[in-house]
Structure formats: structure tokens, C-alpha cells
Amino acid sequence: MSDAVSAEKIPVTVLTGYLGAGKTTLLNRILSENHGKRYAVVVNEFGEIGIDNDLVVGADEEVFEMNNGCICCTVRGDLIRILGGLMKRKGRFDAIIVETTGLADPAPVAQTFFVDEDVQKHARLDAVVTVADAKWLSERLKDAPEAKNQIAFADVIVLNKTDLVSPDDLAEVEGRIRAINPYARLHRTERCRVELADVLERNAFDLDRIVDLEPDFLNPGDDHDHDHHGHDHDHDHHHRGHSSHGHGGMKHYHDEDMQSLALKSEAPLDPVKFMPWLQGLVAKEGQKILRSKGILAFKDDDERYVFQGVHMMLEGDHQRPWRDGEQRLSRLVFIGRDLPEQAIRDGFTACIAAS
Amino acid sequence: MSGLGAERPERIASVADQVAAIALKAPATAVHFLGERAVFVGSEKTCTLAAPDGTPQPVTVTDGAILCTVSDGMRVVLGCDDGRVVSLDADAAVTTLATDAKRRWIDCVALHKDGTLAWSAGKTAFVRGRDGAEKSWEAPSTVGGLAFAPKGVRLAVAHYGGATLWFPNMTAKPERLDWAGSHLGIAFSPDGRFVVTAMHEPALHGWRLADGRHMRMTGYPARVKSMAWCGGGKLLATSGADCLILWPFGSKDGPMGKEPMMLAPLTTRVSCVAAHPTQDILATGYEDGTVLLVRLPDGAEILARERDGDAIAALGWSASGETLALATEGGAAGLLKIV
Ligand SMILES: [Zn+2]
After folding, report:
1. Count of CB atoms within 10 A of residue A87's CB?
2. Quick one: which of B131, B78, B72, B132 has its CA closest to B105?
3. pTM (predicted TM-score)
4. What ipTM describes this predicted complex?
5. Binary contact (A64, B222; C-beta < 8 A)
6. Is the peptide bond before B297 cis (omega within 30 degrees of 0)?
7. Which of A138, A256, A303, B18 registers the highest number of CB atoms within 10 A of its CB?
């Protein structure tokens, strides 16, 4: 598990989204607006960006398997090379945006930041931002697994073209998004008119910032208890809207194959049991787990431990001392496909330290 | 292995005080020699020529980043992110040798001793002979590294899934050397019998060209970024471990089933190696800023730079072997006369 994030590392935002959803509009805004920041942009189609900038670099989306022979353990080989080249011009830009094609799986991009030592030394993954078309997303979620991946992976979702759908349809598509990923920040926009500060430099992958993400990431919101599993003490599905929007009548969906699973324990965890369990879980089920995050209270440990992962790759560290009066609650979230829910919950329960 | 860096200066001879500092405007990523003049290659825009007395002469070679470099001792060839391949000679003359039609980044360059030039942009490898004729070959993925064979015009191209030997002047089909994974650096052994790649994972892979037999060279804690042939071409020295790693290539089986020799251990990793052109001495740079001159085969050491936490980015010997040039990631640089 790796070290803490250095402030000097260049933040990298990964911009995903289906063709036509509005990624290019957002990119052009980022490149043309006067926000005082300089961006280097890695694009997959040169022609789409209407701006002549020598810090716009074309990419080939070369996905390389790592030598463990596992199909989910992949990195973007071209990105390693491009980030290396861009670092030769460090000082000429403040941040990097990596655009992926509409069909791309965000995992290889994210995993590049977990495995490559040189990339880790100079850059840090800031957030995965997914631009989605309010009009077409519901359809794409039915027929395109990559659209589902991009929603599941997102830290920030820009739900664009909301002016083209009825309030009912909008509630429907938001319900479908939340069924897959209740933890991302969701912004409703027209023509990608979103505050850039809501999209860029989110620090969503920063272990030190998990504390600040709590309202978004672990806010119980309008909880639904699912007592049918008999695990009401450690199980709730979170269905939560962005704080600036009312979602009184939000539709409630269960996605057939992509879910999120939240676990909680008020009793401290046994680190000797928990760490091997978590590592074993992602080693065994990592192909199904797209994202994982957690804040953990270990027995006889006065510091919070935080972790996050992508498929089989994890990073974690002690974050800070628990504050006086702060409830020492352990919370974990998994987003994935066909998650073995009962097995995960049983495994987690077994990690609670004997009192 | 009780190689604590702090103990070394007391135990071993030091010539660190004889290094003449060179003032660079920006850190160098590579260093070559053109005669007795050192060329410190910056990460963007500028190379700095340094006379034997240390006087620096900055030369602008591009407006952008310098992505790769190679030298044959007559000229320094640079691949840039503005799509140009340029050369710099000892008189500070800059010549554009090639410009990519799509202005793609030039990721790799290689020089044959007969003057043939190779470069790559994306998946395409290009070769230009002395007669000026240009040929290209499409690799299956982005080219990770280029190297000419010591004899004949044969170019080894590293890529994802292995390497390919391409004969630009012959109609023969390129010869594929398979091995799963991403291959970056590439080198022929000086006798031309082996090809070795530095992989993206912390390992080298080798092929015996006579029969394609594989050689896995693993056990590194970090990726190998620097390799140098030494010991009369029978040893391959590498970075990537907390000591100098030397793989034996002298026998007909190369390092197959053999352990590497390990010299000069410190509590930090080797970042850079450079073989003396005539004697069995390896300049070895470390991530903590130490430079040791390591003698083969007994491993006797002389301290050439004391550690200061500033990782060694580049080392290079003049063709005469009289001068060692060194550069750090932080921008320090120097010349050491070995008499
Ligand atoms: Zn995997």
C-alpha cells in the first residue's frame, strides 16, 4: 500500500462519457475559459478539439495486461509514455485531463496510477468525471455495458442535456444512475454548463481527502433499510441526490447486474483479520469490484485507516487520529457487478474484533 | 550486505572533491560526449555543451520537450515533442534531420555506427540510411525502444508483446520475438548473439537469436531504466536494484539459469550505470545522489559523488575514458577527470 499523496504531484482528471454526451463541449470549455489554470489534455481524437495548443496530445488507448495473466489487471501503456513526456514540460501546466473514448473502460486508466512507479511519482489521479446524456443514458444503460462501467466508476457525474428531457424522464435517469452509483456527485447541466470547480481538482482519489468526501461518499441521505437480509445493523443502500436538488420523488431502482454495497460496524475491526480479508476479497472477486473505498476503526488504534481500490488494486494508509467525540465507525463501500453480497457481508462481520 | 551509505566515505577512497561543477539552467536527463566536450541534454528546449574546463554553452534545439536521445560520439540526435528529429554537433550546430508528417512525438531514436538513423513516432519505426533513403515499419503497438544490431543494418524494435527484428534493406520478413508484457528499452549484446529488453514490469527479458531461447531476468524491486555492456561485452550491468546487477552473457547460454553478480550495495537504488570505454570500471549512480566507480570483477569502489538526496539522472564517459560526466534530477552537474 502506497504512501500519502504529495501536494506537488500534478492532478489528473479522467473524463469519460459516451460519444455525443458532451465531453468535447466540456473539454473546450476547460481549455478556453479564463480560469487562470493551464491544462495539458490527452485526447483520443485530435480533430474534435477546436483549440490549437501544443499541450494537447493524441493518445492511442493501448490497454496492456499485466503479467499476472488476469483480465482486469490492465494499464494504459500509452498513458504511461505520454505522462512521462508531459512531465518533461512540468511547470508549463497545472493539471492534466485525460479524455477516454466513449467505449472505454475507465479501469485501465485508474489502475495506471496505482501500479506505475514513475506515474505515481509525478502525477496523481484526481477524479473520474463521467459526462452522460440525460436523453440517451437510460437506453445506453440497458444495451451498453461500458456506459454502466463509466457511471459505476465516476466520482463526478455531469448529467447533460437535461433541457431535452421531461422532469419525469430526468427522475427516471437519475434513479437509474443512483441504482448503480449512489456515491458520485451528480450535476444536472445544459450544454455542460457546470462550475469547473465542481468537476476539476476534486481530490476524489486522495486518501487524505476521504474525510471531506464523507457527505457525498457516505452520507446516509434517504436510507432504505433492507431487513430481508437480516443484517440491518450493517447494511443499507444509499439513495441520495445532490444536496442542491430536491429528490423527494426520486425513483428507486435496482440495477440487475451493477450494485453498490455499503457496510458499517460500530464495533472496532481486528486489523489482523480485516486486512487479509480485504486483500483476499479483491484478489478473488476483484474482477467484479469496480471501485471500493473505506474508513476503518481498528481495535486499539487511535488513527483512522482509509483505503480505496480499483478492481484488485488497493491503496490505504492511516489518515489522522480519531477526533475527541468522533464516533469510531467503520464504513466500506463496494461498487461492482454481481457482487457476492452475502459473502462480503459475512466476511466483514467476521472481521469485527472480539470485545 | 551491510552497505550503509554513511559508512562508505570513511572506508573507501574518494575523488568526489575533484568533480568540477557545471552550471546548468535546467536539469539534464542524459549526457553524451562529442570529443572532450560533454553534452548535457535538458528535458526541454536546451542542451548544454560543456568544455573540458567546465564552461557551459547552452544551445536551443527545440521549442518543446526532448523526449529521447542517442549519440555516436560524432553527433547527438534528439527526438522532440514537436515531431522533429534534430542533431547537435560539437560546434553547437543544430540540424533538423526529419519532421514527422503529423507532428507526432518522437519517442525513440537510435544510431548505427555507419550513420544510419532510426526513430519512431507512435507505432511507426523509421530508418534512414546514409544514402538518404527512408523506410518505415508499423509495429503492433507503440514502439517502446529501438536498437541497431552491431553488424549489418538490422533494427530491433521493442513493443507490447515482445520485440521485432526488422531488416530495412532486405525483403526478408521481420522476425518476431514474443514475450507477454510491455517492452521498453532494448539492446543487442556487443557480439550480436542476444537481444535484451527492459520491461515495464521490474524485469529484463532476453532472447538468444540463434534459436529464440528465452532468458528471464527478474528479482528487481524497480523497473530497469539504465543498462550498460561491460567486461568486454560479456556482462550486462543494470540499474533497478539496491546494488549493481551484472548478468553474465559470456557463455553460449547467456544468463539462463544463472544468478547475476551483485556489487556495490547501498541502502538506496541504483538509478544509472555507465561503462568505462576501455577499462572494467562502471560508473554507478544511485537515487540518493551517490556515484561510485566500481571495478570489475572484484567490486573495489571509489566514491565519485557523495550522497545528498538528489538522484543521479545521467552518467556518461568520454570516448577516451578520461572524463566522467554526471547529472542529477535536481539540476546539479559535473565533470570528473580520471587520470
Ligand atoms: Zn485482475
Report:
1. 19
2. B78
3. 0.88
4. 0.91
5. no
6. yes
7. A138
pLDDT digits (tens, 9 = 90+) for A242-298: 333 334 445 567 777 888 888 999 999 999 999 999 999 999 999 999 999 999 999
How open is the CA angle A324-A326-A327, to the nearest 5 degrees? 135
Return d(Cα A48, Cα A54) in angstroms, integer.
15
Residue B167: CB atoms within 10 A of its CB come to 17
Q: Report whether pLDDT(A329) > 70.
A: yes
**Is residue B271 predicted with pLDDT exceeding 70?**
yes
Contact B123 A60 (CB under 8 A): yes
Chain B 123-152, residues with CB within 8 Å of chain A CB atoms: 123, 141-142
B107 closest CB neighbour out of A58, A66, A81: A81
For strand B194-199 and strand A39-43, is the pairing parallel, antiparallel, or unpaired? unpaired
Give the alpha-carbon dihedral of A312, A176, A186, A232, to 10 degrees: -70
Please give the Cα distance from A216 to B137 (Å, whole number): 51
Phi, psi (5° rounding) for residue B243? -155, 170
Q: Is the pLDDT of residue A114 over 80?
A: yes
Q: Phi-psi region for residue A115, left (φ > 0), alpha (ψ -120 to 50) or beta?
A: alpha
Rg of chain A over Cα atoms, rounded to whole angstroms, equals 20
One-letter amino acid identity for A28?
Answer: N
Cα separations (Å) of B180 from A60, B119, B201? 19, 24, 11
Closest residue of chain A to B63, computed from CA coordinates:
A54
A77 reaches B (C-beta below 8 A): yes
Take residue A29 and report the three cell numbers written for it.
470549455
Supply A190's cell numbers. Answer: 445544459
Q: Measured between alpha carbons, how far is B246 from B263 in angstroms, rounded to an integer?
A: 8
The answer to whether A64 contacts B82, with C-beta atoms less than 8 Å apart, is no
Main-chain phi, psi angles of A115, to 5 degrees: -105, -30
A316-335 residues touching B, CB cutoff 8 A:
none
CATH tag, B13-337: 2.130.10.10
**What DSSP assignment string belongs to A325-344?**
T----EEEEEEEES--HHHH
The alpha carbon of B300 is separated from its chain's Cα centroid by a whole number of angstroms, namely 23
Report the alpha-carbon distance of residue B147 to residue B143 in Å, rounded.
Answer: 11
Confirm or reject contact between B180 and chain A (CB < 8 A). Answer: yes
- Cell numbers at A186, concatenated: 451528480
pLDDT at A3 over 60: no
What are the residue boundaries of the structural domains of chain B, listed by start? Answer: 13-337
pLDDT digits (tens, 9 = 90+) for A187-238: 999 998 988 888 888 887 777 665 443 434 333 333 333 333 333 333 333 3
Listed range (A28-37, A171-180, B115-124) with the worst mean pLDDT: A28-37
- Which residues make Cβ contacts (< 8 Å) with residue B38, sequence separation at least 6? B22, B31, B32, B49, B50, B316, B318, B323, B325, B335
DSSP state of B172: S
Q: Does A121 touch chain B (CB under 8 A)?
A: no
Of B64, B142, B180, the CB nearest to A81: B142
Phi, psi of A104, deg, nearest 5? -75, 145
Model pLDDT, residue A240: 37
Q: Are B156 and B207 in contact (CB under 8 A)?
A: no
Ligand 1 center to residue B202 CA distance, Å?
18
Q: SS3 string of A69-88?
A: CCCCCEEEHHHHHHHHHHHC
φ/ψ region of A300 (left if φ > 0, alpha if ψ in -120 to 50, else beta) reads left
Identity of the amino acid at A289: I
> Apex CA B43: angle with CA A96 and CA B93, to 5°?
140
Cα of B217 from ligand 1 centre, angstroms: 24
